[in-house]
């Protein structure tokens, strides 16, 4: 799915701003059929939950409604006219005036709705968007809705971050020529100093295709004709971690010499692969340093914010991080564009978090019922998961920063039924994108003795909390457990091993001379213990700390103001561990600590 951009043949109008807002229980039937009768207004993009002081809105179960008037440019006569939603969490219905024109299920991937026949160039229309925050056992991520003793509905979800909802990313109106470029797929490789860009173009309307590749100065380096082919770059400059070099691929849909449509996208020439126990970028061993993150800020919730994005990348650069994981859902595409331009590697993760009834059972790992069953994660859940993977890969396949697909966070891979659930999904990902390795982040209940699916994947990615949820305050024992855990995975798999989550909740300003949990010293000491263990294993290829910054969670007695495992506070102030990480990570340049420069 191509990101809408303005070109010589396409126009783009952002619809971000302040929209009318209301929840369904305070509106008449069919509220889209007239102007919303509400005093409330909501910012777009932003989650709606923290915008208002009314708790009934923050924890609402059911539909909410956004509405605004949209003016269609009069110059768009004869064009296709589409609405683009970068995300609507978690499902949406879209109305133009009184007409339902489309919808979408899945809260973190974009969707387009063709409204050509429902609007008129030069005229305005009433746009109403119904958005539902509801999660059930057939959504990704899953959850359940119950009716409480008071008669009200409550949402339960099985992931440890707040269920922010709404129009958290941009909304746009854009035009396309009747004959246009519909999709572009790019795969890159190189041989010595010669780079290659293999492309495939899909068009609507049967046009011929012409492509050209230019450098940053605009000099055309290669051209080709046809819907698929190969472009060659002599003296190629590779896209590298920390040194992003981008070319521009321009695709034209043509009729003879007439250009009917034109679209341009950035291309970074690089390769990624797993070979034995190594993760290779451009044929060289690479060591990940970085974070699991969240799209999470005060007031905005999961609303995308360019200022926070820039600052977060600056803080990652300050620590020496070279990568991050989009835990636990795809981030706004603007974030990947930024990573492309700045040479930051991305582990791109789906919203499949909470596929584990063992977590509901607590640290015992005993599920109330099997995870992989029609009662919870059955055939419909698997189908929703597959659709999410199609949309994720369709959106992100051309980003050079994306080097690894993570198709689930902490699933019950130790339970019966896991293989039947995941094997078709792994096969789907390899079919959609045979160029990138695949992983999943592994819950502590899934061990090298009982995990049932690791042979399907390329990288062993562990989430481990020795010294926190297990052996809290006893780092000596935790170190022994961690050492044995990693050794067990090495002996079993012969695959690269990395840690996608490790850390400790930390209250800034809390100090102690002892190994006291929640203190800044304990967080620093725990991370140092993990790093000592990592450095003992040449098979270890990366460390991503949980978490970059403190973030909001659901109500829970074990959380004080959210999850506090951040190296930075939610306001992005550094804790003591941030300075220790900076000392460890800066200057590694993707090398294993202790490896020769």
Average pLDDT for all residues: 94
Count of discrete domains: 3
The name of the CATH architecture of the largest domain is: Alpha-Beta Barrel
How much of the residues is beta strand, in percent? 25-35%
User: What structural class is derived from the secondary structure elements?
Assistant: alpha/beta
What is the CATH C level class of the largest domain, in words? Alpha Beta
Number of helices: 9
> Terminal Cα separation, in Å?
40 Å
What is the CATH topology of the largest domain?
Answer: TIM Barrel
Model description:
The protein is an alpha/beta fold and 597 residues long. The chain has 3 domains: 165 residues, Jelly Rolls (Sandwich), CATH 2.60.120; 88 residues, Immunoglobulin-like (Sandwich), CATH 2.60.40; 301 residues, Glycosidases (TIM Barrel, Alpha-Beta Barrel), CATH 3.20.20.80. Helix content is 18%, strand content 30%. The protein has 9 helices and 30 strands. Strands 23-24-25-26-27-28-29-30 form an 8-stranded parallel β-barrel, surrounded by 4 helices. The protein has a 6-stranded antiparallel beta sheet with strand order 3-2-4-9-6-7, with no helix packed on it. The longest helix is centred in the last third of the chain and has 19 residues. The mean pLDDT is 94.
């Amino acid at each position: 799915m191509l990101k809408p951009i303005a070109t010589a043949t396409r126009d783009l109008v952002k619809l971000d701003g302040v929209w009318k807002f209301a929840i369904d229980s305070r509106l008449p039937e069919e509220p889209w059929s007239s102007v919303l009768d509400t005093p409330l207004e909501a910012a777009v993009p932003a989650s709606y939950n923290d915008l208002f002081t009314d708790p009934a809105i923050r924890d609402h179960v059911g539909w909410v409604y956004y509405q605004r008037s949209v003016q269609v440019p009069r110059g768009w006569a004869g064009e296709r006219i589409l609405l683009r939603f970068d995300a609507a969490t978690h499902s949406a219905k879209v109305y133009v005036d009184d007409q339902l024109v489309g919808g979408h299920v899945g809260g973190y991937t974009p969707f387009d709705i063709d409204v050509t026949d429902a609007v008129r160039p030069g005229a305005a229309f009433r746009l109403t968007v119904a958005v539902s925050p509801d999660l059930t056992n057939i959504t990704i991520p899953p959850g359940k809705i119950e009716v409480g003793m008071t008669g009200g509905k409550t949402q339960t979800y099985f992931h440890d971050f707040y269920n922010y909802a709404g129009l958290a990313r941009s909304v746009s109106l854009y035009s396309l020529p009747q004959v246009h470029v519909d999709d572009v797929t790019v795969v890159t490789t190189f041989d010595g100093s010669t780079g290659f860009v293999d492309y495939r173009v899909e068009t609507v309307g049967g046009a011929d295709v012409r492509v050209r590749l230019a450098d940053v100065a605009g000099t055309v380096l290669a051209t080709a004709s046809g819907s698929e082919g190969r472009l060659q770059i002599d003296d190629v400059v590779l896209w590298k971690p920390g040194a992003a070099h981008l070319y521009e691929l321009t695709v034209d849909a043509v009729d003879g010499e007439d250009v009917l449509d034109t679209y341009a996208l950035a291309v970074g020439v690089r390769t990624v692969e797993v070979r034995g126990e190594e993760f290779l970028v451009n044929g060289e061993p690479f060591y990940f340093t970085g974070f699991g993150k969240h799209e999470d800020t005060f007031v905005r919730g999961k609303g995308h914010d360019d200022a926070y994005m820039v600052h977060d990348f600056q803080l990652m650069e300050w620590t020496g991080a070279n990568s991050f994981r989009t835990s636990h859902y795809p981030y706004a595409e603007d974030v990947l564009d930024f990573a492309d331009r700045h040479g930051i590697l991305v582990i791109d993760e789906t919203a499949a978090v909470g596929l584990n009834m063992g977590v509901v059972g607590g640290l015992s790992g005993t599920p109330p019922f099997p995870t992989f069953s029609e009662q919870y994660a059955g055939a419909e859940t698997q189908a929703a998961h597959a659709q999410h993977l199609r949309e994720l890969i369709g959106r992100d396949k051309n980003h050079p920063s994306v080097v690894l697909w993570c198709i689930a966070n902490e699933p019950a891979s130790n339970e019966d039924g896991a293989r039947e659930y995941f094997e078709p999904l792994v096969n789907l990902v390899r079919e959609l994108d045979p160029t990138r390795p695949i992983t999943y982040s592994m819950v502590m209940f899934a061990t090298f003795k009982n995990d049932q699916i690791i042979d399907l994947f390329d990288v062993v990615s562990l989430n481990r909390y020795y010294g926190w949820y297990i052996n809290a305050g006893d780092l000596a024992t935790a170190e022994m457990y961690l050492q044995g855990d990693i050794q067990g995975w090495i002996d079993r798999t012969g695959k690269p091993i990395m840690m996608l989550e490790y850390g400790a909740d930390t209250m800034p300003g809390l100090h102690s001379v002892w190994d006291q949990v929640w203190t800044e010293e304990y967080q620093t000491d725990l991370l140092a213990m993990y790093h000592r263990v990592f450095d003992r294993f040449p098979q270890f290829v990366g460390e991503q700390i949980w978490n970059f910054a403190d973030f909001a969670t659901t109500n829970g007695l074990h959380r004080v103001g959210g999850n506090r495992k951040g190296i930075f506070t939610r306001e992005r102030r550094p804790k003591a561990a941030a300075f220790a990480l900076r000392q460890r990570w800066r200057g590694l340049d993707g090398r294993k600590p202790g490896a020769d420069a």
